[in-house]
Amino acid sequence: MKRCTVVAKRPLMFAGAFGFGAWLSGLVFIDRLKSDKARRLMKQATDRVIREKTKLWIFPEGARYNNGNIQPFKKGAFYLAIDAQVPIMPVVFSQYYFLDNETKTFEPGKVVITTLPPISTKGMTRNDLENLSEMARQKMIEVFNESSKDLVKQKKIAI
């Protein structure tokens, strides 16, 4: 993970030792309620990606709800990739069953993580954003559904 950082929602910055450690390690915290500031931070991140050849790990759903679906994507990651003319490397996490949402505790479990081939943004403009976002999302949905099948067979989750 050399020269890689994560874009995360700002409230995580205040999550005790985790937030402090994340801040020290260079996470980019985005305040989704202040869109102008979020855009400026994403612009700075884009400049850093270009200048330092850094990688950013962005969760385009914004938040994951473990309901058997991949949520619609936010646009920031795709603006960044197009502006920097860098490829998107989709990473898909299957459904999970080991997090108890009510008690916020973990139990033993399994998640399948799949890295897809890079999606080039060379030559794309912001006019291509919707198509790029939807293409990435559709590819990820296919893999999400396939990687979650094993968990369905084990009767750990329902789709």
UniProtKB/TrEMBL annotation:
Presence of the UniProt keyword Metal-binding in the record: no
Top-level lineage group: Eukaryota
EC code: 2.3.1.51
Recorded GO MF terms: 1-acylglycerol-3-phosphate O-acyltransferase activity
GO cellular component: endoplasmic reticulum
CDD domains: LPLAT_AGPAT-like (cd07989)
GO biological process: phosphatidic acid biosynthetic process
Annotated Phospholipid/glycerol acyltransferase domain residues: 3-96
This protein's UniProt keywords: Acyltransferase, Membrane, Transferase, Transmembrane, Transmembrane helix
Protein name as annotated: 1-acylglycerol-3-phosphate O-acyltransferase
Annotated source species: Papilio machaon (Old World swallowtail butterfly)
